[in-house]
Structure formats: C-alpha cells, structure tokens
Specification:
The complex is a heterodimer.
Chain A lengths: L1 E4 L9 H5 L5 E2 L7 E2 L10 H5 L5 E3 L12 H5 L5 H6 L14 H8 L1
Antiparallel strand pairs in A: 1-4, 2-3
Chain B lengths: L1 H7 L9 E4 L2 E4 L3 H12 L4 E4 L14 E3 L9 H10 L8 H20 L16 E3 H14 L3 E3 L4 E6 L5 E7 L6 E5 L2 E4 L19 H8 L4 E2 L6 E6 L14 E3 L15 H8 L4 E4 L5 H10 L5 H6 L8 E9 L6 E2 L13 E3 L7 H4 L7 H24 L9 E2 L16 H12 L2 H4 L4 H19 L7 H26 L22 E5 L5 E5 L15 H7 L3 H4 L4
Classes of the chains: A alpha+beta, B alpha/beta.
C-alpha cells in the first residue's frame, strides 16, 4: 500500500491525485497531497510511475498498512526504482522495447 | 421492472451539475473503453468516456502487462490457435467470433505499432507483437482517445443508466468522486466497458472492477451469459497484489518444512495449491529458472519483482508464501450477453465490450486472462464503438426529450431511514465468494447455503435508504454490484450440474454432453437463469487435442495463445 509522500521531493503538483485509479490521495491547499484513503490502495504502483519527482513509495504489502515490523522496508525506500525499470522520465527510454515476454511465452508452453 | 420504475422517476429540470449532450457515452476507460471511444469518434460520433478512476491507470491491464491473442493468418496457424483452448473452454466458443476476433486483433495491433507502441524487435529484426506492457499501452490509448476528439471524464463513476420513453438507453448519471459534483451525459447510445468483477480482492489492478456496469445494465433489463465461469483465482505472493502467474511455470511449490508439494503448479496444479491452502501455508520458489530466463523475466514484467525487491526476497532461491486471490469475472469469462456482431446487448442503445461482456464467444468457459481477454477487449471495444456510433446517428433524440432514472439500490427513495453499510455488505459478499471450498469448487449444498444469505442481503439493500453523498453512493453501488454478481454467479453455478471450463462441481466431476449450452442470467430482485444454444457449424469443429497439456507442448505457435498471466 502507498506509505510515503516524500516531503523533501514532492512539489505539490497533484498529478498523483489525478492518476491514482482508486482515489487514494487528496489535494491539500498550499501543501503536498495527503494519503486520505490508504485502505482503498490496490498496490498497483501506478502512482510511482506517474510521479515526476519520484516522491512516492508504495510498500509491497497489499492487505495492510505498514507496521513497526516494516520499519526497515520504509527506511530502505527506493525513490523512483519502478519508474527507472520501465524507463519513464526525462532522458530515459521506455523499456517496453526490451520486453522479452515473447521469448518467455514460447518457453512457457 | 425497469419501465415501470423508470416512468415514475423522470429526470427533472432541477438537475444540478454538469450536463453533456453527445452521440455516444463510453463507461470505463480500460482497453475496451478506449478502443470503443476511438472507434466511435472515427465513425463521426461526439463521444464522452467516463472512468471511475483515471483513464490510463484504471483497470486490470494498466498496472500489468498482457499477452495478446495475436496470431498470423498463415497456413493453419489460426486453426491451431483456436483449437488449443477449445476443449479447455468446454467447447462453448464459436468459430465465427474467434475468426473475427483474430482478424480484428491483428489489425488493431498493427494500428498500435503505427501509433508508436514500442514493440520489441527480435534477433532476426522481426517486430514481436504478442504482448504489451500495461502502463505503456494504456498511456498511449489515453493519448489516442484525446486525439480522437473524445472527451474524458476522470474520477467520474456512472451510478445509473438513463432511458427514454421507449426504454432505450439514453445516457447515464454519475458523480465526480473528487468534487462531489453530479454529472449527466445524454447520449443516443452507451457502451458498457467497466470490466469484470473481482470483488475487491486486491488482485493487481482489480479493485476498480466491481461489476458496476453489469448492475446498471441489469437494471435496464440486459442479460448476462456464462456467469458460472467466474471463479478464476490469480496466483501470487501471499503478501502482495501482483497476481501475475506466468513465471510460476518455473516455480516449485513447497510446504513450511521445505518439502515439495507434488502436483502443485501454476496451471493444472493450481487446484492442488487451493486444496493445500485450505489447511496450511504454501510456498513458491522460481528455482527452475536459469540465469537467462531470470534476465528475460526482469525485462518482461518489471512489476513482478517490485514486492520481492522491496522486501529483500530473492524469488529464485528463497521460498516465499503464495496465495490465490479471486479474480472473478476478470479472468473468468462471464459477462453481459452480446446479441449482435456490433456487440449490442438485448437492450436498445446499449453495447458491451471487454471483460464487462461475456468472452465465451472466443474462449468458452476458460481463459487464463491476458491473451484472449486482451484480444477481445480491443476487438469488442472497436466494434461496440462503431456500432454505437451508427445506432446513435440513426436514432437521434431531441435535447428536450424526457429521460428516466433506472438506478435501484442506493439511489431510489425508500421508506427506510437506515442507509447501506457498504463495508459490511462487501465483507459479507466476500465471505461467500472468496473461500475455495465455495467457489473454486462448487457444490449444491454450499451454493444453496450462500444464496440464502446473499438473497437476504439483497432484500436488505433494496429496503435501505439511499446514499446521502457522492462517496457513499459510489461505494454502495459497488457493494450492490458485487452482490448482484455473486447471485448471478451462484444461480448459474447451481444450474450447471457438471464440470466444464473453470466451473467445477464437486458432485459432477465430468462434462455432460447434454449440457453443451450457454447459461444466460439476469434479474435483480428475482434472478433467472435459462439455457441458450451454442452457435457452431458442426462440420467446422476443430480437431481437438486429447488434452490441453498435450497441445501445450506440441503446437509450435502455442506461444501466441499463452496467457501472460
């Protein structure tokens, strides 16, 4: 589930408020968006892809918010790693062009 | 019921909110909805596309990636592609539809390439087009919808359809769930492309998919088909949302002590996993993947690795707990019944496309998702958009024409004071449809047991007070849609006293030739189910392999049919 809007990175552009398909974020006047409905998060990671500042971190657990146990996971939060993996953002090239699914589909069957 | 209710509930001039007058309204902005909008606009229609979430990230495809049933028209390649899933689907697929979808999908994928989708190129310089990456595909589709001139309404769930004096569908009413503002789109034709229903199971990208379109369509009298084929479960790490199953072909499954679980697998061994999960934890490990395969996996599905990387788990060497999440009719095949080649439904002015519609026409009672569903989404969306545009042109309605509300539960005035506790209804429905012993396997006693509670719950909803604000209305309608879906599912499952496709009856483990028909269903207060013949020319029956497993290893073009689950 979405866990962190990084205050140092976020510019308050509110793209995540628009892009989240389950309406998890809420714009805040004069501030950065807040996670208003965390329980509605479907852990699809799309907000990370659409964040131009790499300011969001979605924790891997889909069924519950992070607890004390997950402190390390949050401390190790990687900023923009998914966006980097799909090659979105300035100076990057979409990695769809490297998609080896066609090879795996042949091997899988 | 629709007409009578509708007549009593005229859309009044006192309507406050945004009003759009167009030719075609498309509800849903996934692959099917975006293809429908583009196709309708290309046929000269003024189009609005309303998405509950954000067109481009909404739905099962966007955060995922999907194989496409993309098969060259080359010798007997397409015949073999058709035959490979024909038996698994219980021989309910229809040849005309399979042929049409293969042709249309081929054309649409060429179109994607022309639009600039970056398909990979293989070592022989050949562009490989059997799969697409979700974020890239849907970002491109959003762009093309906008360029087509269609207008997109994001975060704008439709709550109900509107009809005219003749009962023809004439638009929809909804809300913007971020501003709370109401909207009304008056249209001469409507395409339902809202996806299947996965019961808020948190399977990847599926929580937008609660069966909303099927509920709205049923309220105006539309029929469904194949709702017994609704028990697909996605395999993935127990802690994560990533129900992408293809890589588990390279997995071994273990118990807590590290002992291999014989027979467990991602395809035919998934039942073994379901059985084990009923009593103990099951662990997976992709230990059959060599270095080369591991590298290919990273480029094929970057999101597959997110949960593992973030938890510091190496899925190739470490055992991690797995689970099966219900994906209902998203990876199932049941949905709105399509009565014409342009994907019209049994109701005038109403069209259905993608996972909201039945996919039995091309894969019968089984699909691994991806592949066939992706091909169906782009083909049916394309046809529904064109059909809706043509219908709209021939059936123009005056801007002042009287329209009527059709929404029941959560929208209609009742004498009750108490509203719907949506969270409680959702949990109650999940309790009936999630358990493997009720849904992976179906039995007469448990189906009846679940239906007793589900029917009572429906009566309770019917007599509850309407929602008082936008957020509440959206959630209550989702709860009602899930409940309606569960009742069509289990009523249909009761009727099919055999095992066919993904529908498994405990008491009837064999396929019964006398039940080689489809099951249509519908109704809300009173759910009905009836038989419908499969339209196939008998002389054209494909030479089916003895078992699906055999075809997997023998057909050279098998890859093209595979689900990139």
């Amino acid at each position: 589930m979405i866990e962190i809007v990084n205050e140092a990175r976020c510019t308050g552009c509110n793209i995540c408020v628009r892009a989240c398909p389950t309406n998890v974020f809420e714009a805040v006047d004069g501030g950065i968006p807040r996670i208003a409905r965390q329980d509605d998060c479907q852990t699809c990671f799309m907000c990370e892809l659409y964040c131009p500042e790499d300011a969001l971190f979605v924790a891997p657990q889909a069924d519950r918010p992070a607890t004390e146990e997950d402190a390390q996971v949050l401390r190790d939060a990687t900023w923009g790693s998914y966006r980097d993996a799909v090659g979105w953002g300035p100076g990057r090239r979409s990695t769809a062009v490297l998609d080896a699914s066609y090879v795996l589909l042949t091997k899988a069957h | 019921m629709t007409q009578a209710n509708a007549r009593q509930r005229k859309v009044t001039d006192a309507f406050v909110g945004k009003r759009h007058d167009v030719d075609v309204l498309v509800i849903g902005g996934g692959p099917a909805g975006t293809w429908a909008a583009i196709s309708a606009a290309a046929n000269g229609a003024r189009v609005v596309l309303a998405d509950k979430g954000y067109c481009g990230t909404s739905g099962a495809t966007a955060p995922s990636g999907t194989a496409v049933w993309y098969v060259p028209d080359d010798g007997d390649t397409r015949e073999r592609a058709k035959a490979s899933r024909f038996e698994m689907g219980g021989r309910l697929a229809e040849h005309d539809w399979m042929d049409r979808v293969l042709t249309q999908t081929w054309d649409n994928v060429q179109q994607l390439a022309d639009w600039g989708y970056p398909f990979p190129v293989d070592e022989f310089g050949q562009s490989q087009r059997t799969s697409v990456q979700g974020p890239e595909y849907m970002r491109l589709m959003r762009k093309r919808v906008k360029e087509s001139g269609a207008r997109i309404l994001d975060h704008s769930p439709a709550l109900e359809l509107l009809v005219d004096d003749d009962g023809a569908v004439a638009g929809a009413a909804g809300v913007n769930r971020q501003t709370g503002e109401t909207w009304q789109v008056r249209a001469n034709a409507v395409v339902i492309a809202t996806g299947g229903c996965a019961f808020l199971s948190r399977a990847l990208g599926c929580n937008v998919l609660t069966g909303d379109g099927q509920l709205m369509a049923a309220e105006v009298g539309a029929e469904l088909s194949g709702m017994e084929f609704s028990n697909a479960y996605g395999l993935g790490p127990a802690f994560a949302s990533v129900t992408k199953s293809m890589f588990y072909k390279w997995a071994t499954f273990y118990d807590e002590d590290g002992q291999k679980i014989e027979g467990a697998g991602s395809a035919r061994g998934r039942g073994v996993i379901a059985r084990e999960l009923a009593s103990r934890k099951v662990f997976g490990c992709l230990d059959l993947a060599d270095e080369q395969v591991r590298a290919w996996m990273r480029t094929a599905q970057p999101n597959f690795f997110l949960p593992f990387d973030r938890l510091g788990i190496d899925p190739f060497t470490q055992h991690f707990p797995v689970t099966l999440r219900l994906e209902g009719t998203v990876r199932g095949t049941g949905g709105l019944n399509v009565t014409g080649r342009d994907c019209t439904t049994s109701v005038d002015g109403l069209y259905a496309a993608g996972d909201a519609a039945t996919r039995e026409l091309i894969c019968g009672g089984f699909t691994g998702g991806g592949s066939h569903n992706a091909a169906w989404a782009m083909s049916s969306g394309f046809w529904a958009g064109a059909g809706a545009a043509t219908f709209a042109r021939a059936n123009r309605r005056a801007a002042s024409a009287a329209l009527y509300h059709t929404g029941g539960v959560a929208l209609q005035e009742t004498s009750a004071h108490e509203g719907i506790d949506s969270a409680q209804v959702i949990r109650a429905v999940q309790d009936e449809v999630f358990p493997y012993e009720r849904n992976w396997w179906r039995s007469a006693d448990l189906l009846a047991d679940s239906l007793t509670r589900l029917d009572a719950l429906w009566q309770q909803l019917r007599s509850s007070a309407p929602a008082t604000n936008a957020q509440e209305a959206v959630r209550a309608r989702e709860a009602a849609a899930m409940l309606a879906t569960a009742r069509w599912m289990y009523r249909s499952a009761q009727q099919r006293t055999e095992t066919r496709g993904m529908h498994r009856r405990v008491e009837y483990t064999e396929t019964d030739d006398s039940q080689h028909h489809r099951l249509l269903s519908g109704g809300l207060d009173d759910v009905w189910v009836r038989r419908h013949p499969v339209a196939n020319r008998t002389h054209h029956a494909p030479h089916a392999p003895h078992s699906p497993r055999e075809s997997l290893s023998t057909a050279p073009h098998r890859a093209l049919n595979g689900a990139l689950a």
